[in-house]
Amino acid sequence: MKRDDVEKIIETARRAGQIPDLSKINLAEVDLSGINLHRAYLSGANLSGANLSGANLGWAYLREADLSQANLNRVNLNSANLFRANLYKANLNEADLRRSNLRGADLSHAYLYRVNLRGANLFRTNLMYADLTEATMIGANTSGADFSLANLTEANITQEQLSIVSSLHQTVMPNGLRRS
């Protein structure tokens, strides 16, 4: 499937007053930069390696979607549902993930420089080896999240949030020191 096909599905659904349904669609490696997928259903979709930089995925339903190695630089994922989504090695630099649901998601090895996770649900999220340099996590639920070997340099996260994660093994803390 190509970008033009996706845009036709979105346009047809919106003209009919419906929410675009792209569930289980294969969009691997497709250039969807800047596309408007606001409130779209993408449950189980394969978006691995796709270019979604600058896209609007606010309020999108991405439950168990594969976004591994996708370019999500500066994407809007505000209030998106990414329950158990695969974001392994995804580029989420400067993305807006405020109030998003990342419960059980895999963000291992992801690039999250200056990401906004304010109020996000990170319950049992895998953030091993993730780069969260200068990330904002105020109000995020970090209970059970795994930050092993992650980089939290200059991240905005409270001690209380850090006290309820499952692991901080070898994590670079906000002060730049590595935890043993």
CA distance, first residue to last residue: 47 Å
- Quickly count the helices: 2
CATH homologous superfamily placement: E3 ubiquitin-protein ligase SopA
| Element-by-element helix/strand order | HH
- Report the radius of gyration as a whole number of Å: 16 Å
Query: In terms of per-residue confidence, which ranges show pLDDT below 50 for 5 or more consecutive residues?
Result: none
Oligomerization: single chain
Tally of DSSP β-strands: 0
Predict the CATH topology. Pectate Lyase C-like
Mean pLDDT: 97
Helical residues, percent:
10-25%
Shape: elongated
Largest sheet data: none
CATH architecture: 3 Solenoid
Describe this structure in words.
- With 180 residues, the protein is low in regular secondary structure.
- It has one domain: 3 Solenoid (Pectate Lyase C-like), CATH 2.160.20.80.
- It contains 2 helices and no strands.
- The chain has helices spanning 3-15, 159-163.
Please describe the topology of this protein.
Layout: H1 3-15, H2 159-163
Task: Describe the structure using short key phrases.
little secondary structure; single chain; 2 helices; 180 residues; Pectate Lyase C-like
Briefly say what this structure is.
This protein is low in regular secondary structure.
